[in-house]
Structure formats: structure tokens, C-alpha cells
Amino acid sequence: MPVTRFEITLRRPLAGEPAYEELKGRLHFAIDPLHAANRRITDVELAPRNGRGHVAWTSDVSVLLPVDRARCSGRILLDVVNRGNTVAVPNFNRATRPAFGPGSDPNPAIDVGDGFLMKRGWVVISCGWQGDLPRVPGLIGMRTPEARDAQGRALRGRVYSQLQSPTPVADFLPADRGHLPYPGADLEEKDALLTVRDQPDGPATVIPRERWRFADAGHIHLEGGFEKGRLYQITYTAEGAPVQGLAMAALRDAVAWLKHGTEAESNPAPARLRWAFAYGRSQTGRLLRTLIYEDLNLDEQGREALDGVIANVAGGMRGEFNQRFGQNSKDRNNLMAHLFPFTDQPSVDPETGTKDALHARLDARGSRLRVFYTNTSAEYYRGDASLLHTDPDGSRDVAHGPYTRVYHYAGTEHGLGIWPPTDSQVAPADPTGPVERSQHLRSVADYAVLLRANLVSLDRWVVEGIEPPPSRHPRVADGTALPPARLAPDFGRIPAARYPRHNARPRRLDWSTLPPEPGKAFGTLVSAVDADGNEVGGIILPELAVPLAAHTGWNLRHPDIGGAEQLLMFAGSTIPFARTRAEREAVGDPRPSIEERYASRADYLERVRQAAVKLAGEGYLLEADIPLSVAAAARLWDHFTR
User: Fold this and answer.
1) Long-range pairs for 635-640 at CB < 8 Å and ≥24 separation?
2) Treating both helix axes as pointing N-terminal to C-terminal, what angle do 626-640 and 601-618 enclose, rounded to 10 degrees?
3) C-alpha dist (Å) from residue 440 to 199, 224, 420
């Protein structure tokens, strides 16, 4: 058993019923670097070994489980923490998530929300997998061993990072969101390169080397400072390469321990847990796509660790989670080597002739791992989500395999919406606390109810063999998937809408040199919209199906934070209807006003309820959550009609 010890440092009860407790501490791991289950972990053979010839490390861990172990339902939910932050309980239980920063309480009370997971007897395990987290208390991380050469020396290699700030700054940490950067091997390196551009896929300008310098091993300084909103890329030689792929071994073996470990092996619920599901969002949805592609789901005993996966808002990307000098927090498709293959089934890149599939290794051994790929409109406008279900050029639809579903949450943004409506928000999962501002109100659509229905459907598929609802997303064949530029006239009719004049597209990149040489763009598609500006392809929330506004997956950066022609990454927009006919005619808005659409608040809410009943009948919403949709609609009505 790769988990050699569970070191418990905190045991405490959770609020609510049924009675749950948290066991928090560290898991100690040791794996055989030569075992077939671990061979696809990059550089694992170069990691230090203990006396048994194993590679050992520790991860922070939190386990939430019923105080009465007999109330365990047999189901494990692996909460794949995002940059050290829990995501499963906040997302499924509609709960708040603590924000960690310098000096924060490392053990804040856990908000269990409405208890959705607990009422169903799920055991939730949050296991650390990142070694490069910002050094702030409370984040769930891992202490990752470092690869060494045959003489025991630290490895050296090139690193490529992108930096952007909403305010002018004199210095940058050359890493994403306050994460630990790779130390420069030579602070005077002549071949280090700093470039700047104004769009992710735009031309880069080289900044002369004499204008910038490494202020120390962790910061870079630019003469005159860095401008707000501009995109800077730095390429330099780093020293010290942690074995990043051990992250996926930690997740796999933590789950295998709960499923199969005994009381003697510190399992807190021995012989009570049978099925394991993973939930990752954004960064960790991409991590799960990487785990699937590498097929790191078999433990050293040849057993499947995970039975089901929800990779949420990952789009078509993977990430640098299993490469030498990989950067775990990097999350822009213009910086990634890990794009193609996008689809679970084999496809051919017509530009390179490469044939591959995300699930190639799973399918080759007959795995029955069930996977849901769920995305919001923001990942479509980022440019890569449509590639989950089209060919690389976006010219035709591609069918998925029998164990996969692809769902698009129409009209939503990357997160679960922002309330009350605002154009400003502190950037999530960033302890440095930058404030982002957009040109429109941010999205107010909360798709948690869709996630809950997805989890129940996935559970039934794994446990009972009941097929989930069919994939629902924009399609080329029926005209609901279009290039973003095709929507400019639709939003041009709406006076208040500021549709992007440029939609960046992910490109094929030649990584034989750094910075990589850009090639042909992939085929980016988004959902078509109706006359109101609302998307028609995908699962439509009841309160969006009966609208009070246009809800989009795009929003532009506000001039106050620079880069006003760029998309504010991950952000959607809310563009309200006029309240009255007179108001809309005064501004020339062709969309019927609220008073022209609905006879009253009661009329509006009844229409929302009917839309929710229909969606529940199709399997995309839980019947028990219909009142939540109606309540969300009531909140929207009260705000936009006041």
C-alpha cells in the first residue's frame, strides 16, 4: 500500500446533520519508481529513494466522513483541490470557501452549505498535490521530491511563463498567482528573454535585455516598470526540478487507500467505501484530463482507483502537470504544449498528421472509467472548449465514446456567478489579492444545480448502470456552433453590448525552442445566440431560459485594469433588458422589455418553474432543486425590476 501512514493533526466535528467530522493531517506515501503503474511519471526514476528503493513524500489531507461510519454510502468524492483550495463542498453544497492569505487561520470552520453531500453519505477527501503553492497558511499542498542527475546535482532547464497585472508594477514574480517560481540558474543569463504583447495570440515585442534584470532569484525588474494589462512572457534557465507527476500518484493512491486500506493501515472507514469519484474544476479539471491521458488510474495492485470523473471548466486543455520544469498554475492555452488531442476518441490533426485520443490508453486496456466533461461559455470563448467535440479545425462534429459525456452550461462564466451584480471582483485563488474589473456586469448565473444533477447521474451510471442524459453542447451540424466573429452582428444590435473585436484562438505551437513558434490556429467555435443575445446550444438554466438579461461567456477587461481589447479571462457578462418599453425605445434596444414579456412577478416565476420541471424531466436538474431555480429567478426579478 503506497500510503504508509495517516498522521492526524486535527479532529473536529462539522456543523449540521447528519453528524460529520473532519480528520486533517498528512498522508505519507512511498511508491516503487520501477513499477509499471508509475512508469509514465516523468523523472520518477531520478527522485531520491528510501532504504526500500521507493520514492517517498507527504501530502496534506482532509477527510470528511460520518461520525457513525455505518452512514457511509460507500461513495468517495476526491476533491481535487485548486491551488490548495477545496472545491467539492463549496460547489456541490452551495457553500462558501475560505480565502487564504498571509496570516490567515489555517483551520477555519468548514461551511457545509445545505449539506448536499453529507445527506447522501459521501466521504470527501481533499488531498494536496502541489509543491509550489504560495507560502500562506491553510492551503492544502504536497512536499514534492526533486529530481537529480546521476551525480546528485539539481537539474537545469528552460522555463516559459506569462505575467499580467491589473495595476502598474515595478517587479514581477515570474510565476502565476503568487506561486513559487523556479529559481534562475544564472541571474546574469544573457539568453534570458522578456517579451510583451497585447493579445494572447498577438505579435510579441522583445524587450532589450539591458532594460530588465533579475532583482533576485525570485523577481524580475523592468526599467520604467510593467504596464497594466499587457501580457509579458519570460523565458529563462531554471535550476531544480520537482517530480511534478507525483501529484497524480498522490491522488490515485489516496483514493486507493480509502477503498482498500485496512484499519491497520490507518484507514478511517475500512471496508465501507467501494466507489470513487473525482471532481476537479479549472486547474484541477485539467489535471484530471492529464491523469486520464497518461492513464495513471491503475494502482500498483492493478486496480482502478477512480470509477467516475467530473472535469469541470477545463475546456480542451491539460497542463504542465507531468513535465520537467512544469508550472502547475499556468492556465492559458497560448502557453501550453498540452492541447491536442482534445477529444476522447481518436482524431487526426490535419496540420501535423498526428493521430491521438485523450482516452487512448484507457480504451486500449478496456477501462470503464466514466467521465463527464462540463464547461461554461467562458471556456468556449477562451477558444478551446469546442475542441472537445469537433475536429481540430472546428469544421465538423466528432462523436464521443460510450463512457463519456460532454455538457455545456449555456450562458455561464467560469465560476458559479457573482452576486450581487458587479463589474469588479478579487481574482479567485490568488493570495496576492488583485482586483479584476470588466466592462459589463459579471455573470450572475449559478450553475451549481447543474453540477449536482451531473454528480447524481454519474453516480447512478457507475453504481446502477443507468445511462446519464445525452451530451448537450453546440453542434456544427445543426448550426448552433459558430465562429465567434459570426456573433458580432447579433450583439451589435444591442446598444449596451461591447462584443470583443478580437477573439484570440489557441494555436499549434512548436516547442522545439522557447519561446515556442506559433503555427496555424485551431478551430474555435462558440454557441449561437437568439435575438436576445442568449445562447441556444447546451444546457440552459431555467432562469436563463426565461430571461431578464442576456447572459454571455465573454466580457472585456475594463480600461482601469488595462488591456481593454482583451477578454477578461474566465468572465461572463450580464446585459439586462430594459424594465419598460419606454426605457428600451429611448436607447434603441430591440429586445422586448421586462414589462412587455411578463405580466407580473408571479407570471415570470411560474414560467421559470415550468422550465425547471422540463429540465428535471430531461435529467439535467434534480427535481429537489427546482425550488432553488425558482428562488434564483426571484432574486434576479427583484434586482432587475427595482
Assistant:
1) 635/419, 636/444, 636/543, 636/548, 636/549, 637/548, 637/601, 637/604, 637/605, 639/420, 639/421, 640/548, 640/549, 640/576, 640/577, 640/579, 640/594
2) 150
3) 20, 31, 14
Domains of the chain: 156-239 (2.60.40)
Q: Which three cell numbers stand for residue 174?
A: 515570474
Instruction: Tell me how far the alpha carbon of residue 561 is from its chain's centroid.
Output: 23
Nearest residue to 319 via CA among 304, 309, 332: 332
Q: Which residue spans within 106-165 are E strands per DSSP?
A: 123-127, 142-143, 146-147, 156-163
Q: What is the pTM of this model?
A: 0.98
pLDDT for 430 equals 86
pLDDT, one tens digit per residue, over 68-96 is 999 999 999 999 999 999 999 999 999 99
Q: How far is CA 40 from CA 52, 321, 391, 629, in A?
A: 21, 12, 27, 44
What residues contact 515, with CB distance under 8 A and at least 6 apart?
A: 160, 193, 195, 204, 233, 235
Cβ pair 92, 116 in contact under 8 A: yes
Distance CA 466, CA 457 (A): 8
pLDDT at res. 217 = 67
Which cell numbers in the block locate residue 420?
Answer: 450581487
Total residues belonging to the chain: 642
Planar angle of CA 266, 54, 275, nearest 5 degrees: 45
Q: Mind listing the pLDDT tens digit for each residue in 32-46?
A: 999 999 999 999 999
Euclidean distance between CA atoms 42 and 324, whole angstroms: 7
pLDDT per residue over 91-140, tens digit each? 999 999 998 999 999 999 999 999 999 999 999 999 999 999 999 999 99
Share of the chain above pLDDT 70, in %: 100
